[in-house]
Design the sequence.
């Protein structure tokens, strides 16, 4: 499920380098005594020992300590950008470094030392923890900040600034006694390069108490936020935001439904690694973490103390959605007890997913944005719930970082850091289920969740999209619980907007499952998993006097908007909003009535941003004809979707909404074209498929069937198609289907006759008996305005008759306007009076013959006998005595 990429290896990137450098140092010292072996390393030298990671700063720098060959403790830094190690400080004896932090300018080092237990090695003064501030640019003075009987964690702030040289640093001291202090340290330069502390004796007066009491605390270095938990009457989560100007304030308070005493000891999260005082897993009653996303989402995750080894419980509070979800998972442990290190699952943020993993038991990939139904979250168990290819990664910590760099996992036992990504190959395997045994183990719910994860979370990869389209082509029939083409379209369209605003989660289409009247139970239930959803207490936002900005402004708006949308019935854009206008517009278009001008303007905007360059080089001939019906439907969708967003999300602004909607519909048309181009390449179709005189191959039949499924999916969602789609589908239909079946497809609405297709059919096919019958049948099915235009193209007696009929009708209408109905049959000898209507028609034609030109031959008169027979046949048809 997870693809792990090595990013740092303590042994490879640090220890081997230290071995080389210290061996070189020993060689220089021992050359005179000649104590070196053939390898160049002293036989008595064992290299650096007790090398351990201490902290990882915001810029990615890794701080570590080791015991050197001379019996001292050293602190160094590994720079992931330059791949270089740098010695920061050397103590003159072996000490226990429990916490360490380096300021951004690398001029100050804060170190917290733990007290040893051996008598002569005790630190003086005799306190459990000694916190030092060390000048290291160059190494100069050392100042004692704290000497207390409780553990202390240190962390420098890393404010964003454009200044190359900053003579000010700010340090947080967090203690087991439950308070947090911030030291404001002023620096000065001496002799052009020495950076020293201004008035080091007055540091104790430059202290600000940030937090007074806490039982749990988490540092988010990337966003410079401090989360902490208080337990007075109720459990309340607080957040302190540190700003670039070094000011800080409490911006959030959130009440949580936690046990009375959730933590046995004060817990530190993301504040370095204390190897001398690590809390063992069996001592943790609750494991808790907070994850945020830059566009305004916040998730508070914690696992409950396990009371039953056969069941595990964990809760996610989705602050941005205003709800909490408590999951209970039954563990199939085969009768064996959980190991101590497995008492709590690991929470791993993956974009807008939260992965909850208990190694070897289950892996739950929870969708924190479309969380209404379990089918949009992926649950795996057994062998699928293994982190890494070898399954031996027991991650002690999840490292925060920028979203673009992925999630970093640290395994303290091995000293390895790797970036974790969802594995697309594994998710594709879930979709395909090529073998019967694999197919039986996969459910529609898992396929639906895997498909959305591939398309939305990882969908920017064109190669991945091609593989998904290939899967769509191979899946001949839709699953019983969902239409996979509809899901592909909606998820792909949602991807272009999901990172713009969380409010769009509730108002844009995401899945066709939401529109089902009865949702199959297989999508609503996960065997062995129960979920309880509750509305959560709204967070209290502080800092209103100065105005919330950035992330906090987005989170506040999201919580308010979600409360509004929960009260609005059906806030998500649905088919029913457009169906009536859709049917009306299609009916009007068939009668050739012009659609409103504003719809045409919408269509022009969409087509202007569709990728239409080099159309002559495109594989599939789309966007190359005027399809008035599809143009009207495109404009209608833009109109309705824009109206919907303006009603529910006016905060986005009309300009942004208009741009979003136009891009959304344009992406739809491009997506369908991309699907067709992919299947064109898959079956190696060429220009010959557009020839109407040849019979289609099995490959063309497969493409025709795929296009029919696209048509069915888009009709079910009331989505327009690219202009030219119906023409291309009809061409493939003529080539692949028997004529009678082709006509049945037209009668049942599966195929639609476009003027471009019928025109090509009339001119490309000869007048053999079968083709003539097909052409007559198609002409019978055309609306009258199109029929008149098509008759002009067919060189056939019936088409000539139709032209004559129209010609006569025009003359009669003109004649009746100018003259009365005076008529004397004896004035014109040679006419037969047996059929008076025909006699009258012949007289009228004779009257206008001299002033009218024959439409076929301008220099000859009308063949009265031919016109007489034509008029008689048309009269019989009108009276119902004869078919066309």
Sequence:
């Amino acid at each position: 499920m997870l693809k792990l990429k090595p990013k740092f290896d303590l042994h490879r990137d640090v220890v081997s380098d230290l071995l080389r450098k210290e061996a070189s140092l020993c060689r220089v010292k021992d050359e005179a005594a000649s104590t070196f072996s053939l390898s160049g390393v002293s036989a008595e030298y064992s290299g650096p020992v007790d090398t351990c990671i201490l902290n990882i700063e915001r810029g990615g720098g890794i701080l570590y300590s080791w015991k050197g060959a001379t019996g001292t403790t050293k602190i160094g830094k590994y720079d992931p950008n330059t791949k270089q190690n740098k010695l920061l400080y050397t103590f003159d004896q072996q000490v226990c470094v429990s916490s360490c932090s380096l300021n951004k300018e690398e001029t100050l080092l804060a170190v917290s030392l733990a007290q040893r237990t051996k008598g002569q090695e005790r630190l003086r003064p005799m306190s459990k923890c000694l916190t030092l501030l060390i000048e290291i640019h160059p190494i100069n003075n050392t100042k004692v900040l704290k000497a207390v009987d409780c553990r202390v964690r240190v962390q420098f702030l890393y404010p964003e600034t454009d200044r190359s040289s900053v003579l000010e640093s700010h340090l947080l001291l967090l203690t087991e006694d439950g308070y947090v202090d911030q030291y404001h340290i002023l620096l000065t330069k001496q002799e052009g390069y020495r950076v020293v502390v201004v008035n080091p004796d007055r540091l104790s007066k430059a202290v600000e108490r940030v937090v007074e009491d806490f039982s749990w605390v988490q540092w988010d270095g990337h966003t410079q936020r401090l989360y902490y938990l208080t337990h007075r009457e109720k459990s309340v989560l607080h957040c302190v935001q540190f700003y670039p100007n070094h000011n800080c304030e409490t911006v959030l308070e959130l009440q949580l439904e936690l046990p009375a005493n959730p933590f046995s000891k004060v817990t530190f999260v993301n504040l370095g690694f204390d190897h001398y005082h690590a809390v063992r897993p069996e001592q943790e009653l609750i494991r808790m973490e907070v994850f945020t996303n830059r566009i305004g989402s916040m998730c508070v995750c914690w696992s409950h103390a396990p009371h039953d080894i056969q069941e595990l419980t964990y809760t996610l509070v989705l602050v941005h959605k205003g709800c909490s979800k408590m999951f209970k998972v039954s563990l199939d442990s085969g009768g064996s007890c959980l190991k101590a290190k497995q008492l709590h699952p690991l929470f791993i943020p993956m974009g807008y997913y939260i992965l909850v993993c208990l190694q070897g038991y289950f892996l739950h990939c929870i969708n924190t944005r479309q969380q209404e139904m379990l089918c949009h979250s992926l649950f795996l168990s057994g062998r699928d719930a293994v982190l890494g290819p070898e399954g031996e990664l027991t991650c002690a910590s999840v490292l925060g970082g920028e979203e673009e760099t992925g999630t970093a996992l640290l395994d303290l036992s091995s000293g390895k850091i790797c970036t974790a990504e969802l594995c697309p190959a594994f998710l594709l395997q879930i979709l395909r289920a090529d073998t019967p045994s694999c197919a039986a183990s996969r459910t529609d719910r898992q396929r639906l969740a895997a498909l959305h994860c591939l398309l939305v979370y990882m969908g920017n990869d064109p190669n991945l999209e091609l593989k998904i389209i290939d899967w769509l082509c191979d899946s001949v029939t839709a699953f019983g619980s969902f239409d996979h083409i509809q899901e592909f379209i909606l998820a792909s369209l949602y991807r272009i907007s999901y990172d713009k605003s969380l409010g769009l989660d509730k108002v844009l289409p995401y899945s066709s499952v939401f529109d089902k009247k009865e949702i199959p139970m297989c999508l609503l239930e996960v065997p062995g998993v129960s979920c309880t959803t509750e509305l959560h207490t709204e967070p209290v936002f502080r800092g209103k006097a100065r105005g919330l900005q950035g992330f906090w402004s987005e989170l506040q708006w999201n919580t308010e908007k979600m409360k509004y949308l929960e009260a609005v019935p059906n806030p998500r854009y649905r088919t029913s909003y457009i169906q009536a206008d859709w049917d009306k517009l299609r009916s009007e278009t068939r009668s050739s009535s012009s659609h409103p001008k504003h719809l045409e303007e919408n269509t022009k905007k969409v087509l202007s941003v569709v990728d239409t360059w080099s159309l002559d080089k495109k594989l599939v001939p789309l966007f190359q004809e005027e399809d008035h019906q599809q143009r009207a439907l495109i404009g209608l969708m833009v109109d309705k979707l824009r109206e919907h967003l303006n009603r529910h999300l006016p905060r986005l602004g009309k300009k942004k909404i208009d741009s979003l909607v136009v891009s959304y519909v344009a992406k739809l048309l491009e997506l369908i074209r991309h699907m067709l181009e992919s299947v064109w390449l898959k079956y190696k179709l060429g220009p010959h498929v557009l020839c109407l005189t040849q019979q289609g191959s099995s490959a063309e039949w497969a493409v025709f069937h795929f296009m029919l499924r696209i048509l069915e999916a888009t009709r079910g969602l009331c989505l327009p198609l690219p202009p030219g789609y119906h023409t291309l589908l009809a061409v493939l239909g003529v080539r692949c289907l028997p004529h009678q079946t082709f006509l049945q497809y037209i009668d049942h609405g599966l195929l639609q006759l476009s003027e471009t297709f019928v025109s090509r059919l009339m001119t490309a096919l000869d007048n053999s008996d079968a083709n003539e019958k097909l052409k007559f049948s198609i002409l019978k099915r055309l609306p009258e305005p199109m029929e008149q235009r098509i008759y002009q193209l067919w060189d056939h007696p019936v088409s000539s008759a139709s032209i004559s009929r129209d010609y006569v009708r025009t003359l009669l209408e003109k004649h009746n306007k100018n003259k009365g109905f005076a008529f004397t049959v004896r004035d014109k000898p040679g006419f037969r009076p047996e059929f008076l209507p025909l006699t009258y028609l012949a007289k009228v034609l004779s009257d206008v013959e001299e002033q009218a030109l024959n439409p076929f031959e301008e220099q000859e008169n009308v063949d009265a006998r031919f016109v007489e027979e034509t008029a008689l046949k048309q009269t019989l048809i009108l009276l119902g005595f004869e078919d066309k």
About this structure: The chain has four domains: 2-285+390-418, 286-386+423-478+489-494+508-567, 575-754, 797-879.
